[in-house]
Amino acid sequence: MLPMRKQALALALVDCNNFYVSCERIFRPDLARVPIVVLSNNDGCVVARSNEVKALGIKMGQPWFECKALAEEHGILALSSNYALYADMSNRVMTILQGFSPHCEVYSIDESFVDLTGMPKLREVSYAIRARLGMWTGMPVCVGVGPTKTLAKLANHVAKKHPRSKGVFNYNALTDLQKANLLKHLPVGEVWGVGRRLTERLARHGVTTAFDLREAHTPTLRAAFGVVMEKTQRELQETSCIQLEEVQADKKQIISSRSFGTMVNELSVLKEAFSTFAANACAKLRAQHSHASVVQVFLSTNRFRTDLPQYAPCLAVPLPYPTNDSLVVNRWAAFLCERMFKPEYPYKKAGIMLSEISPVTQQQGDLLQDTDTNKHKLMDALDTLNARYGRGSVNVSTQGGRSGWQMKQERKSPNYTTSWADVPLV
Length: 426
What we know:
alpha+beta; five-stranded mixed β-sheet
């Protein structure tokens, strides 16, 4: 009896097109053909561009002040980042994708791998994914299918760049000759994980296309670039080396930080900021049922202002007991803030990092002190209320009004899907 041939994987990468811009256009159909950029925290740099803006040559990460003349000339609309809207739209997209396969990996806010192995008519299924997301959310997406994650990424790139694909490309459906021709036309820099510096190094070894990388001498490649590059090569050779991660691992470190909208030189305002950072970080801890044993805080002046004195202190403290209690962490953060603060410096950024994170089930008890269950109940009540009425509905009193440090969002659109006051009227 002949051995059964192992079924080839069919991994689909579903990628939202110009995600931040698309989120804004879904609720503003009048912006369909308007050139749009979305700006980073404090409206500093370009973090998303519509196709019209890309055609004008504005780069990702370019400072906004450098683009203002071009924006006035071509009528470019600049919007502040609306993270609440983007996160909610992302959750809706990912939930819909789970209706096509129980095996999904959320790779980023706008990308997800979906295992379609064994499904017939993959092209029709891919078009069904695009149609359902378009109908239920209005989000435009492209779908690339391949036998490995790396090839699915390349297939998605083809689906985006070539109009004839109509947003869908199935690498599995190609013949061996077609696969080789495709890879010969794709620069090695388009391969997942190959950045600019690696592209330059590979070029010195005669590797300039994805096909060159696939056919390179494996021992030489591994000796020069390490095992990660060998895995990338094997993925191009249709051997899956990067597994689908359906369950996200708990974070080993949690950071909450922010650049301020204006310079801050008052201790009370900094304490308000740290209180908010502590609350956000501890909420993430509780969400993954963990607690932390080390609290680290940092301050920073504006490193881009060479005319100002520079100061960037950082202090950490090991906690007596692991905790995820916002009140406890906030007290330690305030204590460290007082130790670091120097009134002669104007501060531009601050943050808190929680580390030595472990599950709440792993805690050494104290024989001399009873466990305070009321604190757990208080945090549970806080999380329940914020989950029901929206993040930030109930705060620790020390968080204050945020008026002295909140980042600039002068161009932010309404929170269409997460605030009753901003729900669109039809």
